[in-house]
Amino acid sequence: MRDDEATTVRDIAAHRVLITEIIQQHHGRVIDSPGDNILAEFASVVDAVNGAIKIQEEIKRSNADTPIDRRMEFRIGINLGDVIEEKERIYGDGVNIAARVEGLAAGGGIAISGIVYDSIKDKLSLGYHYLGEQNVKNIPEPVRIYRLLTEPEDVGKLVGEKKTKARKWLWAATGAIAIILVMFVIFAIWNYYFRPPFEPASVEKMAFPLPEKPSIAVLPFNDLSNDPAQDYIAVGITENIITALSNISDMFVIASDSTLTYKGKLVKIQQVSEELGVRYVLEGSTQKSGNRVRVTAQLIDATTGHYLWSEKYDRDLQDLFSLQDEITHKIIVELQVKLAEGEQARVSQKSTTNLEAWSYANRGLAIWMRISKENNSKAMELFKQAVELDPNYVWAWVRLAWTHVMAANPGWSQSPSEHYKMFLEISKKVLAMDEYNSDVHALLGLAYLMQRELEKAIAEGEKALILGPTNAQAHVLLAVSMNDVGRFDDAIRLVEKAMRLHPYYPAYYLSWLGGGYRMTGRYEDALSVYNQLLDRSLKGEFPVIDAHLYLVDLYAVIGKEDEARAHAAEIFKIEPEFSLKRIRSINTYDYTDPALLERRLKVLRKAGIPD
User: How far apart are CA 527 and CA 518, in angstroms?
Assistant: First the structure.
């Protein structure tokens, strides 16, 4: 068994979906047993055997393209006999014998009872290996067992059968099955059911204190298709579930940008829980086949090491929207979260029912998350196609607006003013479409901020937090407005909350936190934050000049002039003509009160930065 339980669950879930599909193709019906196996009922014995052969062929084909340490083998047992059906549960001697037959199958093989052999030996071109009469627990008479030989060269072979005993047992069995004719296939997925619980996460080792509310991280769903072009489905489902959960005031939901850091990595649930400071983790996978999609989802309590539930779905692509709602509501019910007034509607809200538009938008998101000038441009075109297909697709409009914000950055386009104009137009448009959307109000707050209408920006930001209490980006945008009007304690509180919601936050969060600390006299805290920011700037995550300037400012205000001038010298190495003329282009210096700005400029002049 592999150490990474999360990967094991995903792989097995995908195999189970494949097995279910083949059973249905062969006129079978899967019945989940309360025990350790899965039972499947077939219309005929031939369908059962053909289905079992097909399953093992597909598993073998899958293993051929899978690393040795991830390959799985399944045993299949087939029996024909009496059962009792009660409230969608079945039991009886027929099931007991099938379970024992399965236990005598080889890994990757198929075993059948004698009565199944007698039913198919003249109908199917197979070979058989007779294992003799086996004593079966709780069954008074021995049971004949055969293993199927399915290779072409084995057709017609029969190894070691004792014919006299076979005929005698056949007559006894025929009398038994005259009452009810039912076929059962048992799949012993021992890796899934018998794996030991993983080591629980340690609350003491968590990077952050556990919130009092139910806390959850939704890991990026795994795309099992091995086709990068289909990854947008996994990306879209992950994002949509996080967005829906973020609308619930009584939950603590980690931002998607933080959980994205685990995408494509073999990571233990214990590690995720301790690094993000959450109790629950949701993981899953998707696999597209034609117009169908297979989705698995597992909800785990990391503090106990237990899987709360695990579901597999095989749906038409058009059903993706309702499926996302279904998974979200199962999480809410399982965690016993009570929805406040109006939250039910926001959780179930569908931004589009147009699958093609949804596909374009989520392809755009998958590209846009790999931030670059080129990717931003590609994502913009995909979001445009999405809103052309569905002009009321609010989520896609919001994402399109953000691509225009990015394109307005210096050097990202030849006409930044046009992108700024488009951003403002979209911000007003989406409010008319959906006034109960957290992202819409956060976007509108940014628009007002850029127009220096700060009272309106703060009002919109506060609405965004009411509608999306765990929307990390909305917290930061409101913090920026608070900083600009001089409400530094509020700005600090908002950035710290955003960092908790988004543990792998972008570097620019630090600039606003450090600025708040600096302006409230928390100089030691500011120094620690600014040093972190400089480290990340040197890795290319933030403008290096800005980070040095913050340290010039801070060292000068606490009287460490040598350190201040050393950082000033680093600025002039990068940009010899640097002056205070462009100070408002740097984060945290854009105040509405001129006195606040002058307070910082005075210190910078003292450190040698010219006007």
Answer: 8
pTM for the whole structure: 0.67
Are 23 and 171 in a shared domain? yes
Q: Are residues 43 and 138 in the same domain?
A: yes
Q: Could you give phi then psi for residue 283, rounded to 5 degrees?
A: -135, 160
For tokens 């899934």, name the residue: 192
406 vs 401: CA distance, rounded Å: 9
Nearest to 119 by CA among 43, 46, 23, 173: 46
| Token output for 551 | 């340290």
CA Rg value for the chain: 31
User: Which of the residues in the chain have pLDDT under 70?
Assistant: 1-14, 31-38, 43, 66-71, 81-93, 136-138, 161-198, 226, 338-350
Residue 245 shares a structural domain with residue 186: no
Give dist(CA 384, CA 377) in Å, integer.
11
Cα→Cα distances 372→313, 378, 403, 407, Å: 35, 10, 11, 10
- List C-alpha distances in Å: 527 to 533, 547, 565, 586: 10, 11, 16, 18
Tell me the pLDDT of the chain averaged across its residues: 82
pLDDT 10s digits, 36-74: 456 777 767 788 888 889 888 888 887 777 665 566 777
Q: Are residues 190 and 207 in the same domain?
A: no
What is each CA distance from 191 to 270, 299, 332, 363, in whole angstroms?
19, 18, 28, 34
Q: Name the residue among 388, 400, 367, 67 with its Cα closest to residue 229.
A: 367
3-class DSSP assignment, residue 390: coil
Tokens of 76: 């299949």
**Is residue 395 assigned to a domain?**
no
Cα separation, 453 vs 471, whole angstroms: 22
Looking from the CA of 178 toward its CB, the CA atoms found within 13 Å total: 7
Question: For the chain, how many structural domains are there in total?
Answer: 3
Residue 214's closest CA among 280, 271, 270, 305?
Answer: 280
Beta bridge partners of 128: 148, 158
- Residue 196 region by backbone torsions, left for phi larger than 0, else alpha for psi between -120 and 50, else beta: beta
Token output for 542: 């933030």
- Neighbour-count burial of 285, counting CB atoms closer than 10 A to its CB (0-12 exposed, 13-18 middle, 19+ buried): buried
Contacts of 241 (CB under 8 A, 6+ apart): 218, 282, 324, 327, 328, 331
The vertex-43 CA angle with 37 and 48, nearest 5°, equals 55
**Digit-coded pLDDT (tens) for 142-190:** 888 899 998 888 888 888 765 434 333 333 333 222 222 233 333 333 3
| 567 close to 548: Cβ distance less than 8 angstroms | yes
Measure Cα distances from 511 to 546, 567, 588 in Å: 9, 16, 7
**Which residues constitute the domain of residue 578?**
506-611
CB of 18 within 8 A of CB of 63? no
What confidence tens digit (pLDDT) does each residue in 401-433 have? 999 988 887 778 788 888 888 998 999 899 888
DSSP code at position 210: P
Q: CATH code at 154?
A: 3.30.70.1230
Angle, CA of 577, 579 and 585, to the nearest 5°? 115
List strand residue ranges (DSSP E) for 329-475, in order.
none
